[in-house]
Specification:
Blueprint lengths: L2 H51 L1 E3 L3 E4 L3 H7 L2 H33 L5 H13 L2 H11 L6 H8 L14 H8 L13 H27 L3 H9 L4 H12 L1 H16 L3 H6 L11 H11 L3 H25 L8
Antiparallel strand pairs: 1-2
Length: 328
């Protein structure tokens, strides 16, 4: 009789083992379609892109050049110029979008009339075709019959060449006052600032929607308790809203930085990287090398350099901003 429990336990363990195998098999079978799609449409193109970047590519690899395309890209002035333009674009655009988005979201979170109407209207630019809206804004920026120059003429100010002006905005303002600034103090070009205005108009609606969702997760009891202690509006915003909204801000920071460094559609439609490379972001440079110069391997190398820059910035943000996020 002493051996009976041992036999039973073995049978149970065998039963549980077979059941565990069936569960694992079912799980892997359900994951298989997603894994196959990921491998075919994500992993394989990336690996194939790495292969192309190490070749002198002419519809096929005519010569394996190793890391020559990377060395050439990193030692070419146009690459660093495009990265500088992209970084300038991001440094101005990201704080502007997040600042306006947070401010408007906080206002719309209050009990105001037409709240749903304003939320809808502000979100519409984000869901509108970027190419179509960029074409319309190009017309608004037209130096001849654009609406913006019409407004400037009405109030007695000179018309501007918005998308075709390579001079810096600070240099233009100083020039109107009869002052000549050195090149390093000229500031971003008027064309780039015009693109940033368009980008802010498009994406601030998305930021507002996400900030509103984050504000909705903050317990009202915290505000009520702080008000009992005599806290005012600014104190509530600084001590409660900002810290508890940090997970949302962190997500939007990562999302917006990645988006600005990949900016292409509206830049190409509105300026095609001009004037005089004043708006040639790295994505535009990659497109130019790929479709205009037919330098496929070189363009692939530029793409992975941009990927490395975005990955590095994401890791830095994760280390710097991630530690400051308040989850409770």
């Amino acid at each position: 009789m002493a051996g009976v429990p041992t036999v039973v336990s073995r049978r149970r363990s065998g039963h549980f083992s077979r059941k565990r195998v069936r569960e694992l098999g079912l799980g892997y079978a359900m994951l298989a379609p997603a894994v196959i799609l990921l491998l075919v449409f994500e992993v394989f193109p990336i690996l194939y892109g790495v292969y192309i970047s190490t070749c002198d590519w002419r519809l096929e690899c005519t010569q394996f050049v190793g890391f020559d395309n990377y060395f050439r890209a990193l030692t070419t002035a146009s690459t660093w110029h495009s990265l500088l333009i992209t970084a300038t674009y991001a440094l101005i655009s990201v704080p502007l979008q997040l600042g306006i988005g947070l401010g408007v979201a906080y206002l719309l979170y209050q009990k105001v009339r037409g709240q749903n109407f304003f939320r809808t209207v502000l979100f519409l630019p984000y869901i509108t075709s970027t190419v179509a809206s960029a074409a319309i804004w190009s017309y608004l920026y037209s130096p001849d019959n654009g609406v913006l120059n019409g407004i400037l003429k009405t109030i007695g100010l000179p018309a501007q060449h918005w998308l075709t002006e390579p001079k810096g905005v600070f240099a233009l303002m100083a020039q109107s006052a009869g002052i000549a600034l050195p090149a390093w103090a000229a500031g971003p070009s008027l064309a780039l600032v015009s693109l940033i205005a368009f980008t802010t108009w498009v994406f601030v609606g998305y930021d507002i929607a996400i900030f509103l969702a984050g504000l909705g997760n903050i317990p009202n009891e915290l505000y009520d308790a702080a008000k009992v202690d005599g806290a005012g509006g600014w104190t509530l915003f600084r001590s409660i809203t900002i810290p508890l909204l940090s997970p949302t801000t962190y997500f939007l920071l990562i999302f917006t930085v990645i988006g600005t460094f990949k900016a292409f559609n509206h830049v190409w439609v509105m300026t095609e990287g001009g004037p005089a490379d004043a708006t040639t972001t790295t994505s535009v440079l990659i497109f130019q090398q790929l479709y205009q110069a037919n330098r496929y391997g070189y363009a692939a190398a530029l793409s992975f350099i941009l990927f490395a820059v975005i990955l590095l910035l994401t890791l830095i943000q994760n280390q710097w901003a991630g530690r400051r996020v308040v989850y409770e």
